[in-house]
Amino acid sequence: MPDRQPTRQPALRGTAQGSASRTPPCPWTGADRPPGHPPSWRKRWVLLLNTTFEPLTAVPLRRAIVLVVCGKAEVVHGDSAGMVLHSASASLQVPSVIRLSNFVRVPYRGRVPLTRAALMLRDNHRCVYCGARAETIDHVVPRSRGGPHSWENCVACCTKCNHRKADRTLSELGWRLPVAPRAPRGRHWRLLAGLSDADPLWLPYLGEPAA
Ligand SMILES: [Zn+2]
């Protein structure tokens, strides 16, 4: 039997919600959650880059490993915990970022949907008003005052500023936004919008935050 356990037990973070991979059982990751693996192991996601290093999407870890093992992608960044998977005859660094061997053309698909995860990523998980760690989303023009739920009117915010601001406008408070919020550009944002979190190792590949 191949040893399917990672060489050391990492502090795995669940990084995504949504549908699980329907790929066939993989000899590297096991048919299902291997004994001893935390549930988040199966929820690990890997950033997939085009040959040009343009981010395309995030894929489940199992799919990423299949792509690498089949020679369709190479590992650009290994997992920050340095985890290694073993099969009977080889070992493979657990990837955080992989790059396709062949270029794929992806059609442009318009405006990125606004999700909490994508908004937090756009604002670097920092409160736009004070720079503290953001825990919530603030509507710059409060919804009670007709403010829309849009990229241009939503910002990452800490609970303290959110409570202080309440249903007042920035001019009423004398507050200012450092940068006008806007929708992030780049089609990968659409694909990342479905994730609840992103590996910090991905950030250099995601481009400059839009706000
Ligand atoms: Zn704040």
UniProtKB/TrEMBL annotation:
The keyword Cytoplasm does not apply. Residues 1-37 are annotated as: Disordered. GO terms for molecular function: endonuclease activity. The keyword Nuclease applies. Residues 114-163 form the HNH nuclease domain. It comes from the Bacteria. Keywords: Endonuclease, Hydrolase, Nuclease. Gene3D superfamilies: 1.10.30.50. This is HNH endonuclease.
